C-alpha cells in the first residue's frame, strides 16, 4: 500500500512524534495552521470515517483518549482547541487514512472555510 500515513506509522517516513502506543501515533503537522497542530492516526489503515465499523470503532475512542492526554500535557485543555476530521474530497481529506487534526494556542474562527 502506498499510504504516507501507513509509512509514518511503521517508521518508513520520519515524523516529529509526540506520542505512540501499540494502536496509534501522534505527530506534529508538517504545515501547521496554529502554534499547536498535531495529528493522531491509527496504525492500522482505515481510509475514512466511512470505513468505521463495529470491528474497528474502538480505535476512535482510543484516539480521543490520546487527544485528551496530549492536550493536557500541552496545557491547552482550558484555553481550548479544535479537533478536525476531514472525510472525502469535498470534506477536504487529502490523505486517505483516517486522521484527526488537533489545533490550539490561538483563537480559531467559525466557520472554518
From TrEMBL:
Every HIT domain range: 4-113
Keywords from the named record: Hydrolase
Keyword hit for Cytoplasm: no
Pfam families in alphabetical order: DcpS_C (PF11969)
Keyword Hydrolase (UniProt): yes
Enzyme class name: hydrolase
Single GO term (MF): hydrolase activity
Annotated CDD domains: PKCI_related (cd01276)
EC number: 3.9.1.-
Record protein name field: Purine nucleoside phosphoramidase
Species this protein is from: bioreactor metagenome
Lineage, opening ranks: unclassified sequences, metagenomes, ecological metagenomes
